[in-house]
Predict the structure.
Amino acid sequence: MHIDILTLFPEMFTSVLNTSILKKAQENEKFTYNLVDFRKYSTNKHHKVDDYPYGGGAGMVLTPQPVFDAVDSLTEVSHGKPRIILMCPQGEPYTQKKAEELAQEEQLIFICGHYEGYDERIREQLVTDEISIGDYVLTGGELGAMVVIDSLVRLLPNVLGNDESATEDSFSTGLLEHPHYTRPADYRGMTVPDVLLSGHHEKIKEWRMKESLRRTYKRRPDLLKGYNLSESERAFLNEIMNDEK
């Protein structure tokens, strides 16, 4: 995967993209990235990229010219038609399902805005996807883009030490992940559930599914509305609901 990032503050990305899993993924040639300061594409003599909104109002709006020209320069050398992602609080709420979809792409272009917003022609003519990481407003799109990029790269084949790690994460299965424990088995009187020490794989699998359902029911019951329960899962859930009464 190759990722182009249009931003006015490229220095914000360097530490994040060159640390931990993201760094290893680059070293193993699983993804590359390119930081594009779209201010350099401005034809304004002062290299301005924003202007006052027509009709008045507070704040400044990103002008179309630098963004269009920056995207044009990237797509001219592209071998396909990349997805162009606008980080925007009005966008589609970001989910693990969306991450899994975007992780199949060979090239992505992220547009990170600042100021009051974007000229609407950027949204209408350039963008294929608008993404929001939550119902709140950040100073710019950079932090949101970092979140999305991190979630995508870890899904690429052989990026994580164990590919099953990504498929078993919270939200990947449709449920929250079950609890985890490690050594020691007894720490300050707090003990690991006996079933995890039993070596009985079927019972461990059953315990994990039940605890995943329990955690989802207690913390994110909304996720269960769109989840297709098997007969055994439905029986577990009924048992959990009775336990909670």
Summary: The first strand starts at residue 2 and ends at 7. The longest helix spans residues 201-219. Residues 2-153 form a domain with the Alpha/beta knot fold (CATH 3.40.1280.10).
